[in-house]
Amino acid sequence: MDWLDKLSIVVIAGLTLATMGMVTNQEINYRHLANAQAEASGLQQTSQLEIDKNIFQPFDELDRQGRIDQARIKLEEIIKQNPDKSSGYILMARLQVKQGNVGDGVLNYRRAVDMQPDYVDKKTPSFIGREIADVVQKGVTKYSREKQLRPNDQQVAQVLHDVYYLQSRIGGGCE
Amino acid sequence: MKTLVKAIDMSILAGAFLGFGAVFLTYLGNPINSGICVSCFLENIAGALQLHDQLRMSYIRPEILGFVLGAFLMARTTGRFRVRGGSSPLIRFMTGFFIIVGCAVFIGCPIKMFLRLAAGDLTAVAAVLGLVFGIWVGVKYIKKGLALEPPKIMPTAQGYVVPALAIVLLLLLFLAPSFIKTGDTGPAAARAPIPIALGIGLVIGAFSQRSGLCITGGIRNFILARETTLLKGIITAFVGALILTSMLGQFKLGFNGQPGSHLSHGWTFLAMTLVGLGSVLIDGCPFRQLVKAGQGDIDAGIATLGMLTGGALVYTWALRSTSAGPTLQGQVTVLIGLAFTVSVAAAFRKRRGAARA
Asked: ipTM, 2 decimals?
């Protein structure tokens, strides 16, 4: 090992220490900032839930009163005005399934899951995988039978496709 | 006992660790049917390094680091750490990229293909057929003179680059600095405990280094010369996974509604044809590239970097499939990848009489 090798080792060690120091310093600052951001995000989430509750309140009231047809019309109106709210599609899906319209219910569950995958993620508070799985099961039974009766019906094929899609999403995997 | 140990082929042992280890990892928290998937896990690592912005797919997977470091440690201790490289690096980089696109369109690497099949997912049948067909095409080219440039002996220091990168990633996994992203939902949140995942990765990496276990290599050797050593390892991995999925209640036979799968069988076939042919070109499946990179193969290191780039771009450019099927971009890239691999296979043929001409 000559003097140049020794110098190289000193330079590498110096650069490594300097890098570690800079990263550590940045991390300390980031953690403070992250805590503050988490607090702000928590507050924002709470106020967002409050806003969502207000948006869907007219529908909730009609639904509670059992005025299903009017509730559905109101919900359609709300979804039209707020197409980015995935919860609207979930409410619509529940309503449709309750009315026996499993096909449209499945389509709306699919829309909601595409917008918000947390609905089928067990590790999140939004998880409603069991509810969707129950509807999917009904869909498989009903539309497999319909497929046998009407093998060339494109609508039946599409619903069945959506049912299997949801089944696959509930199953998990790398998606 | 000694006779029994001798009788058990090293590749069978590596296959057993791979099959049982992968399903055991799903039991401990890894994504279902995806206990080990080199392409999915490289996509996760790319996300963790912010090479794509899908937080749900961002996590430094210790299994991948285990494969590289296990192979490195085994190669160092057994005198098999041989640093070679310089064989068509750009071709290998691009092929590595296209292989991951093929995997992303199928939703899984060749290992995951067998794991999906072992869990009863019949959509993987089209993938097996596609992979075997791709390898068969590659073998045809090999028989007609296909060979990339021969590798040369390289300075030893180069062989340490990929293992050193794996160690840096391992440190980043443990230290979790802010610039490393880890998803709390989706596949990223589905993870086995780090020490166990790393340990299983190390064991599989080490035994695969010793045995040369390779999914595409095993099939290629069988088609090319009816040689079954590596194939036995693959069959063992499949049978091991099949036994454990059945025992753990993860086996569900059928085409429809399988986790992380789609019903576009034609695209699955083409995507895995690309993976098969690409793997023959660069001499090994994605898993084998990691193991070879760990044992000092610079060319495999370059292919690994190509695969990591693929892991990032399949998300950034949406070159992949979801449960609804492949995206148009994914389909187009598979076709481009097939054109690329066939072009390379044709261009690198050593034709008889070429020297005289």
From this structure: 0.81
Residue of A nearest to B183 (CA): A123
Question: Taking Cα atoms as reference points, which of B218, B111, B16 lies closest to residue B119?
Answer: B111
The string of pLDDT tens digits covering residues A146-171 is 999 999 999 999 999 999 999 999 98
Cβ distance A175 to B178 less than 8 Å, yes or no, reads: no
- Residue B223 in tokens: 């088609």
Say if the Cβ atoms of A168 and B187 lie within 8 Å.
no
Determine the residue of chain B that is closest to A110 in CA distance: B324
**Could you give the CA distance from residue A175 to residue A138 in angstroms, rounded to a whole number?**
24
Give residue B356's pLDDT: 45
The 10 Å Cβ neighbour count of residue A6 is 10
* Closest-approach residue (CA) in chain B for A24: B177
Q: Which residues of B touch A (CB under 8 A)?
A: 31-34, 37, 40, 43, 56-57, 107-108, 177-178, 184-187, 189-190, 256-263, 322-324
More confident residue, B352 or A4: A4
pTM attached to this predicted model: 0.91
- Judge whether residue B3 has pLDDT over 60: no
Q: Where are the beta strands (DSSP E) in B113-251?
A: 152-153
Which A residues 98-137 touch B at CB under 8 Å?
A: 117-118, 121, 123-124, 136
Determine if residue B29 is left, alpha or beta; phi over 0 gives left, psi from -120 to 50 gives alpha, anything else beta.
left
pLDDT at res. B357: 41
- Cβ count within 10 A of residue B80: 13
Q: Looking at the predicted structure, is the pLDDT value of residue B14 above 90?
A: yes
